[in-house]
Amino acid sequence: MNKLRLGTIGTSWITNSFIDAALDTGLYELNCVYSRNKEKGEEFSSKYGDIFVETDLESFMKKDTLDVIYIASPNSLHYEQAIMALKAKKHVMVEKPASTNVHEWDEMLRAAEENDVFVLEAAKHMYIPNLEKVADEIEKLDGVVGATFPYVRYSSRYDNVLAGEEPNIFSLKFAGGALMDLGIYPVYTAVALFGEPEEAIYYPRKIRTGVDGIGTIILRYEAFDVTILVGKIATSLYDVEIYGSKETLIIDHVSHLDKARKVDHQTFEEQEVHLEKQHENSMFYEAEALAQMIETKDEPKTKERYKELSDLARIVSGLLNQLLTQAGIVFDSEA
Length: 335
Description:
Elements: E1 4-9, H1 13-25, E2 28-34, H2 38-45, E3 52-54, H3 57-62, E4 68-71, H4 78-87, E5 91-95, H5 102-114, E6 119-122, H6 130-140, E7 144-152, H7 157-162, H8 178-194, E8 199-206, E9 212-220, E10 225-231, E11 240-244, E12 247-251, E13 260-264, E14 270-273, H9 284-295, H10 300-327
């Protein structure tokens, strides 16, 4: 297949990571970068060679030299930009959260279908090979009685908040906060491994800007609960724990899934769980998956996988909406 011509929106480290991952697959070439600031865009793209920088968003979307657009702008801009790209008949990988509500996600899927292209949410850990292996290990447990999924990591941007500023990631205007930035990872993992919960409850602590800085989520299933610890104003060093009746499955991180072990409840004996050595850039697999789906778009397995990912994203989006509503967090775009 010919290499897919990639365009990107966003000039942060995560866009660099996706570009690096896409190029590593050997299935993409970077064609264009969008930035409102020409100098910033040129500085960002310089490591990739002589890449054209577009400062007009509409012109960027209409370029006939682009096949795929990766969107990593502030959260509140994802929907509008994704719709523009899809209507321009571009395949889209939009950084999580792809939308701020289920309606927006449904509109993206509709636009993708009408224009015969794909839209995927960049929940990178849904594409990594070890997710399936972890699911297999859970099946080997003698019943699940509970789980704890922590993702609490201090953000240097919180220093700006403490200094009286309001960075995008901590702003209601840009749909920021701990749940939308980090909490989406463990919510995705829980739904992928255990299905849609019967009930979801969020106990957040808001910060000065009005978003959630840290909080605890309880996902209630028929026979067990998943406790999710999420935050951007502190750091947790705990691993993921999934409790069986006789053993605990311990995983290094909710979004990496690189290492795992089992611990016997009575003897405390540890047994290493074999997981595959994964690519050093965890975004490699989502980039690869999109390229493969584009190449095989008419095959039944591809259509089935696309629906599976779309439905999963819809469940997660609905849960995030529910948790935000409970917390009384209303983004400016929703007000």
